Amino acid sequence: MKYKKASKKVSYKINKKTTPPVEENTGNKIDIKIINNFVALIAILAIIFIIYFLDPGYKWTWNDLIKSNLEVMSDYKNTDYNKRAQLKLGYFADYMSILRENTPEDAIILMPSDSVINTVKNKLFIKHLKNKTFTTYFLYPRKVVYEKNKDDNEFFDKATHIAIVNYNGYDKTNKEIAEKVQFFVLPIE
Description:
Blueprint: H1 27-54, H2 56-75, H3 81-89, H4 91-101, E1 108-111, H5 114-118, H6 132-139, E2 143-146, E3 161-165, E4 183-187
Parallel strand pairs: 1-2, 1-3
Antiparallel strand pairs: 3-4
Helix pairs in contact: 1-2, 3-4
C-alpha cells in the first residue's frame, strides 16, 4: 500500500505593519528615586548621630561593648574553641571539659545542689552549673540531673557519674579516693 503525500501548503502571514514601541524619557524618574534615597540616608544618619550624642546608653554600647569586643576578637582570633570559652566563661568551661573527657557519651551525671555551688568563689564562674540548660549544652549527649529535681527526674536513680564540686560528692561513690580534688567527676558504683 502506498500513501499519498499531502500536497497542502501551509502559509503564515506576517504582519509587516508592526511598529516598534515608543521609548519614554525615564531619566527624570530615576534621578528622583536616587535623590529620595539619598535624602532618606542623610535623615537616618542624622537621627543615629543625634541619638548617639544624647543618650549615654548608645555611647556605652558602641564605645565599650562593641569596640572592646572587636578588639578582644582580633587579639584572640587564632585561639581554639576551648581557650575562647575559658576566656568568656572562666573555670566553668574548663570544668565542662573535665566532665566531657572523663565520662562516656551515654553518661548520666548527678550535679550538686545549689547550696554546694554557692560555696565556690565567684571568680571561678561556676555559678553557671545551676543552669541546667546551659550545662546540658556543653555536656550533650550526656544527661544532667540535679539533686534539687530528684523527685521529678526519671534519670536521677540511673545516674552513672557524680560531679565533684568544691570537694562535695565523694560520699556518693563507693570508690576509695586517696587524694581528693576540688573539681572532678567520678563514676557511681
